[in-house]
Amino acid sequence: MSEDASLHADVAEILLTEDEIQAKVRALGAQIGADYAGRPLTLVSVLKGSLPFMADLMRAIELPVRIDLMEVSSYGGSATESSGLVRILKDLSASIADEDVLIVEDIIDTGLTLNYLVRYLRGKAPASLRICTLLDKPARRLVEIPVDYTGFTIPDQFVVGYGLDYGELYRNLRYVGVLKPEVYSEVAGG
Ligand code: 5GP
């Protein structure tokens, strides 16, 4: 079996097709472009899961934008659960003081990671700070997060694709889907 065939063969169900995602990203980009018209915008994204969304969204926004990237790791959790303890692996490369900042996130689950990030970025004194997430799983929220732009609200399922991984794989899927149950036990087991 080729690598490509096995990649897709691990997927049990496609939740969001490539076309659905791309249409939503265009709509979000248009909305953000209208809301921030006349103001330069700084997009701050969190590696690695938000990479495809950031790349597509920035090109859907018809405004001058700056981008910056952070990388955080949450530790103490498992492959499918976040712990809320966040360590910054890569910080912003430039000051965001007095800038309009939009956080670009792949998914909000418990909200613990973003809650930490929002408090951290607020401490850098941006002129404004808003949140855009492609996916939202409100069923599992542990902390309240004011989300300004949401792509899709999805049920409480662990999803992969379009940046989202399981064991660092499946990020390159163009769609968002759910893996077959046996895949989770295989990777978790070794
Ligand atoms: P939270 O702190 O909101 O619980 O989780 C945030 C992070 O957990 C996300 O940025 C993502 O990396 C990971 N995560 C949460 N839910 C999922 C999911 O369904 N699939 C994948 N692949 N990662 C998830």
Brief synopsis:
This protein is α/β, with parallel strands linked by helices and 190 residues long. The chain has a single domain (18-154), classed as Rossmann fold. It has helices at residues 3-9, 18-35, 51-60, 112-122, 181-189, and strands at residues 11-16, 41-47, 65-74, 86-90, 100-108, 128-136, 149-153, 176-179.
Give the tags.
29% helix; 29% strand; 190 residues; 5 helices; alpha/beta; Rossmann fold; two-stranded antiparallel sheet; binds guanosine-5'-monophosphate
What do you see in this structure?
29% of the residues lie in helices and 29% in strands. By secondary structure, it is an alpha/beta fold. The protein has a single domain (18-154), classed as Rossmann fold (3-Layer(aba) Sandwich), CATH 3.40.50. It has a six-stranded mixed β-sheet with strand order 4-3-2-5-6-7, with helices on both faces. A two-stranded antiparallel ribbon has the order 1-8. Strand 5 (100-108), helix 4 (112-122) and strand 6 (128-136) form a beta-alpha-beta unit. Helix 2 packs across helix 3 (51-60). The longest helix has 18 residues, at 18-35. The radius of gyration is 17 Å and the shape is globular. The mean pLDDT is 92. The structure holds guanosine-5'-monophosphate (5GP). The site of guanosine-5'-monophosphate has 17 residues, from strand 5 and helix 4.
